[in-house]
Amino acid sequence: MNRRKLLMGNWKMYKTVAEARAFAEELGRQSHRLPKPVDYAVCAPFTALHILPVMLPTNVAVGAQNVYFETEGAFTGEIAPGMLSELHVRYVLVGHSERRLIFGESDEWAAKKVKAVTDAGMVPVLCVGENLSERESGQTETLVRGQVRKGLSLLDSKALGEPVIAYEPVWAIGSGKTPTAEEAQAVIQAIRAELADLAGADTAARVRILYGGSVKPANIASFVGQPDIDGALVGGASLEAESFVQMAEALAQVAAGGEARG
What we know:
Blueprint: E1 5-10, H1 17-29, E2 38-44, H2 52-55, E3 60-64, H3 81-85, E4 91-94, H4 97-103, H5 107-119, E5 123-128, H6 132-136, H7 140-151, E6 164-167, H8 181-199, H9 201-206, E7 209-212, H10 220-224, E8 231-234, H11 241-255
Helix pairs in contact: 1-11, 7-8
């Protein structure tokens, strides 16, 4: 099945409103370099979500980095799904390793968030991945498949094809270290096999699965050139418009079957 490639930036806790506006303006000036065969998104801090839908190029969607699973209530400091959809947010990250490790979010919370985002008409991006000790002890496939299964456990069969999955080996995020493209492909192939077990081969073939973890213009083509990797979730390299555009160009060349530049 021909799945459209997706380049998604995750700004994490970077960029003030003024800095987000400057990025959007620069990306707008470079928008002619964003190839049409690719989908684009930027997951920004909550404070910038109100300006980006009107300032980013029209082919760049807006994403949020987190959400709470209740629609409203006495949950000080949390953001409800409806608050995000009102701001024209398209994607919402769920279960990012930093949320799991630093803030103690569980697979059960991830499942509730996936359902809440889906019910609100947005697309959850379920993040999964192993740490270094889990990798070295041979637990990667079992652990990651389990995270996918638990994270999607509250969706009915019709909705199982809606989320995006992002595989981010925890040990690679921000470390400058990466698995080989073939190693990433093997894990993502296992994720697709888990989706097939849950929802059938047709649905599994439709779901987009991204790779994340120290992705940059120099290496993105090697990852997205693999048969089961449909794009990238990018941290630091997505903070500058020029770097974002370079990754877009490389990804599009792979999508077109050409030689991507490094």
